[in-house]
Amino acid sequence: MHVRSHRVRTAGRTTLSLALVSATALTTQLTLVAPAAAVLPGLTRVTSTGPSNSDWKTWQAACPADTLLIAGGGRLNGGDGQVVMDTMVPVFGATDVYSVTGREDDAPGFAGNWSITATALCARTPVGWEHAEAATVFNSSSSNTLTVSCPGGKRVLGAGVEVNGGVGQVVVDDLRPSADLSNVTFTAIEDGTGHSGQWQIRGEVVCVTPPAGLNRVTGLGVLDSTSVKSAVATCPAGQRVHGVGGEIDSGAGQVRMTAVDPISDTQVRVTAAEDQDGFTGNWAPRAYAICA
What we know:
The chain is mostly beta strands. The protein has one domain (7-291). It has no helices and 20 strands. A seven-stranded antiparallel beta sheet has the order 1-9-14-11-6-7-4, with no helix packed on it. The chain has a seven-stranded antiparallel beta sheet with strand order 2-3-8-5-18-19-16, with no helix packed on it. The chain has a six-stranded antiparallel beta sheet with strand order 10-13-12-17-20-15, with no helix packed on it. Strand 6 (83-91) and strand 7 form a beta hairpin. The protein is globular, with a radius of gyration of 17 Å.
């Protein structure tokens, strides 16, 4: 596995340019969840849902003024396992946003309408905030794996992954923070019909000087052949979600994550669905909550 140069940014706001084009441009509507007592000052969860139609699309949730993005997640509403959520990334600028892209897979695609819900977790500037990223080279491998680490003893809060060149035929299989939260491993796999083109994955992490009590909580779904299932990770009492992650165990590219989503201040839910051809093996979703 070859990795492009690793870049690190500190808390000065620098715009990250991403080639993400929304099929429909609508004004973002935000739902702010009033923060309870939190380790990070101003910790806020912002959720926004985009239009429901049959186009590929990108949707974003934006942080309030005077806050930085620390993490985020996304969810597909509809799609019946025939839509691939191939981009879930932080975008930093004058206003930080968490951006999610969905694409219908190859023929026959999906005849119905579907939408995207994006969620941003935001806070006033955490101590030691940094952003790091890396990418694999473009190739035609059936799978690619990439690990991005936090620099200087810092620890992961948020993460993002982008599949470039996959055109809906490459599935994000892992967005997995390590047990000690020093890094995140990203894996993407070509779907059951394969992909003839070249593609890459780009991974990003948001890192901070670790607050007291920072830990990773895991929730594992049932290992069986049910076509759609979820897993939930719940923070310990007195802690709140500061970041999210998810993965599919044994999906072989024929199962795709349709939600990696902080559904409340204390829980992260990962939902996954088999593709339109189904999958004969047993598999399970796994949810990760980064709590403090």
